[in-house]
């Protein structure tokens, strides 16, 4: 059972008219999550990406967020955070979501899923995946969620590599009110390593922790772009060449 970095979600109101400033990142039309009332654009680095998300029908989303299956979903996060723009969730991918679910249960956690999801692309093709959520009401933050794609990494690379950019997400800064507990949870639950103030997950960015007065994603850092830091629709982006 592998656990790897997959993507981060940035909520943007009126996404259909959004363009990344100075075209520093390329955005590609994703599709619609019909059962959740959301749609997205994607900016790929490799198989990992930034998901820019918006809502096409708040009534659909509200109904989904009230359901048992979707109450912890990435879409429900938008409802819980009052549709404020900015960073929302982290996602990790696995090659065996059933084994990952068993692992979480062995850690004493409750889960929701795995649940099957899909979205329809503009060309009519359907992308499918399964999602898994940790159900832990002791947490004040939006916990990472977990995905297993319908296709393996080799096939997905063949399908998506034309959209890969010479850019990498090298670090994600996280603020927490209880740093020690946060670190221990990631070590126990996600088999993360911790070194020099950073949590490490294979084949992904470092996760730099800061103790503060809230639970939040503070910023991301991208390599391959030389540009001053930017605040974009509630989200902080740092860059380095």
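^ structure tokens above, recovered residues below v
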């Amino acid at each position: 059972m592998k656990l790897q970095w997959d993507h981060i979600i940035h909520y943007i109101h009126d996404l259909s008219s959004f363009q990344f400033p100075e075209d520093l990142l390329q955005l590609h039309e994703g599709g619609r999550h019909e059962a959740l009332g959301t749609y997205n654009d994607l900016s790929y680095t490799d198989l990992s990406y930034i998901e820019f998300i918006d809502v096409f029908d708040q009534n659909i989303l509200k109904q989904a967020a009230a359901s048992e299956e979707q109450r912890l979903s990435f879409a429900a996060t938008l409802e819980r955070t009052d549709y404020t723009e900015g960073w929302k969730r982290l996602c990790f991918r696995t090659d065996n979501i059933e084994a990952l679910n068993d692992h979480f249960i062995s850690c004493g956690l409750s889960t929701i899923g795995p649940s099957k999801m899909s979205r329809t692309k503009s060309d009519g093709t359907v992308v499918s995946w399964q999602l898994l959520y940790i159900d832990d009401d002791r947490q004040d933050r939006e916990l990472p969620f977990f995905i297993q794609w319908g296709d393996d990494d080799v096939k997905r690379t063949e399908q998506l590599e034309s959209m890969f950019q010479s850019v990498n997400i090298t670090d994600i800064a996280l603020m927490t009110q209880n740093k020690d507990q946060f670190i221990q949870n990631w070590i126990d639950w996600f088999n993360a390593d911790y070194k020099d103030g950073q949590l490490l997950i294979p084949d992904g960015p470092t996760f730099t922790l800061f103790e503060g007065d809230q639970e939040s994603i503070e910023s991301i850092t991208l390599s391959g772009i030389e540009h001053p830091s930017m605040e974009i629709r509630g989200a902080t982006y740092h860059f380095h060449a």
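DSSP finds five helices and 15 strands in the chain.
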